[in-house]
Amino acid sequence: MRDSIDPAILSALDTAGLDVALIADLVDRALAEDLADGPDVTTAATVAAGQVGVVEAVPREAGVVAGLPVAGYVFAAVGQGRVRVELSAVDGDIVRPGQVLLSASGPVRDLLTAERTALNLLTHLSGVATLTRIWTDTIRGSGARIRDTRKTLPGLRALQKYAVRCGGGLNHRMSLSDAALIKDNHIAAAGSVTKAFELVRAAAPQLPLEIEVDTVAQCEEAIGAGAELILLDNMNLADLRSCVALAAGTGGRVKLEASGGLNLQVAAAVAGTGVDYLAVGALTHSAPVLDIGLDLKAGWRPDATAGAEG
Length: 310
Description:
43% of the residues lie in helices and 18% in strands. By secondary structure, it is of the alpha/beta class. The protein has 2 domains: 2-130 and 291-309, Quinolinate phosphoribosyl transferase, N-terminal domain (Aldehyde Oxidoreductase, domain 3), CATH 3.90.1170; 139-285, TIM Barrel, CATH 3.20.20.70. The strands form 3 sheets. It has a 6-stranded parallel β-sheet. Strands 3-5-1-12-13 form a 5-stranded antiparallel β-sheet, covered by helices on one side. The longest helix is centred in the middle third of the chain and has 31 residues, at 108-138. It is elongated and about 75 Å long. The two termini are 31 Å apart.
């Protein structure tokens, strides 16, 4: 499969830090859903076998684009060497209505078969990037940063977290084993904040470790246990400020992350308390898509007498 993919698309994926094998598997499964019962019957009926043309991906609203090389991969995978893809923007760009983001040329049957899968990925990832940029702009100047969570769609975590980065956000852990996060249920099971911290630190001393607390007293206990990253869950502004004061006493050793009940209306106020991060699950679980259309700009039938199809 990789041999039939335009090297420029593979290069763009590599530059973005995206695993080509992961993208290939995702696209294969997505296309299998569309082609489970055979070829695209509508396209086969309306498009001549030899008809060639050009499609362009164009946003209908302003936003931040993400997933262009992924969408390009979809066209290349369907085209199997017959489709040429050109990317006219870079992931992370702020784009405007009417701007051409991507063009693909080749057999029209291939282009239309790839259309929905390519747009599903491109509009969703661009929506995540756009929402992340809104959040980062809302707290700009506070010194705090926006981070995502594991509240991602199964199979899309790597791409959704990539889109968060395109929007200016930071990533939280990717899996349950590349970093430890002690939550309220872990504390309940272990018996206390201190005990839970000690158990996890002993079991995985090499991993980054964050602990979730619900009260100022628990935050103080976590600092005393040696925590360096503390998640402040559903705290009001006054309690957040109290925790920030406690962390300040450590000389910068302890970083704080606010989480729970966050929305754009309170984001600036929360960031203004002095916390280091805001954890926002909505970036990935509630982002609306960015409206991007794909239009066939020209389609030539194999017999020149048929003329051009718009």
